[in-house]
Specification:
alpha/beta; Rossmann fold; SIR2/SIRT2 'Small Domain'; 2 domains; 6-stranded parallel beta sheet; 10 helices; 9 strands; binds 2'-O-acetyl adenosine-5-diphosphoribose
């Protein structure tokens, strides 16, 4: 793949940057993307049918077990070259905000500092009733573990369909999207709101849009640069081409 290096390089070296990442960035670490088919035990469920308050109310143990399975999958993987390239970009430009929809924590594990986690973090658990964070819990019980303070059911500290995003993270993300001159959309299908609207917020303020994805998405026709391929290959290549 070749970049229009001179133009993009000049822009990236001199601009305020923001990037939104999605599950595609962690795909090369071995995690499934959201809209992949699931396998094994979970093949019969759609993630949308498990990641919701309604699903938790209907069958809390099913939802808890699905997240326990995903939590273990996350613990077994490591960041990939795409994550590390984003760490490099943060080191090289004075203004860079990394906004992620991923709950896997791999950006921070790679070393990114300024990360906004729009959808929470799967390693954190809190009470579904009083919201108190839980430090420890057992995953091998017959039922969903409960809160030490109020006895409510524990749940993952992630955003479910129909729930509001953490306000501080969303506000900071909107501000970064409006303030940046180049906005990256990386490894996301761009169909889940409000995250998907950030690229448009940036573009409406005149930012250049750069999309990195294996396949075209609904955003692609609006992108100024569509870099098609794996983020774990394209991002390191981009860093080398722009910053040497
Ligand atoms: P999706 O599964 O919807 O999309 C993953 C995107 O990554 C697709 O566009 C793929 O083409 C692309 N992709 C896959 N592998 C890639 C690679 N190696 N390099 C680059 N691109 C690659 O995941 P998200 O867009 O992250 O929300 O999904 C957004 C939200 O929907 C999730 O955060 C989650 C889900 O419902 C909640 O749980 C609230």
């Amino acid at each position: 793949m070749t970049f229009p290096v001179d133009l993009l390089a000049l822009l990236l070296r001199t601009s305020k940057l923001a990037a939104l990442t999605g599950a595609g960035v962690s795909q090369e670490s071995g995690l499934r993307t959201f809209r992949d088919a699931q396998n094994g035990l979970w093949a019969q469920y759609r993630p949308e049918d498990l990641a919701s308050p309604q699903a938790f109310a209907r069958d809390p143990k099913l939802v808890w077990d699905w997240y326990a399975w995903r939590r273990e999958a996350v613990k077994a993987v490591r960041p990939n070259p795409g994550h590390y390239a984003l760490v490099e970009i943060e080191k090289r430009v004075p203004y860079f905000t990394l906004i992620t929809q991923n709950v896997d924590g791999l950006h921070r594990m790679a070393g990114s500092q300024n990360v906004l986690e729009l959808h929470g973090n799967i390693q954190r658990v809190r009470c579904a009733e009083c919201a108190l964070p839980a430090e420890t819990w057992g995953d091998d019980t017959e039922s969903v573990p409960t809160c030490a303070a109020c006895g409510g059911l524990l749940r993952p500290d992630v955003v479910w369909f129909g729930e509001a995003l953490p306000r501080d993270q969303l506000e900071a993300a909107v501000e970064a999207a409006r303030a940046c001159q180049v906005f990256f959309s990386i490894g996301t299908s761009g169909v889940v709101q409000p995250a998907a609207s950030l690229a448009y917020a940036a573009r409406n303020r005149g930012a250049v849009l750069v999309e990195v994805n294996l396949d075209p998405t609904p955003l692609t026709p609006k992108a100024d640069f569509f870099l098609q391929g794996k983020s774990g290959e394209i991002l390191p290549e981009l860093v080398r081409a722009v910053w040497g």
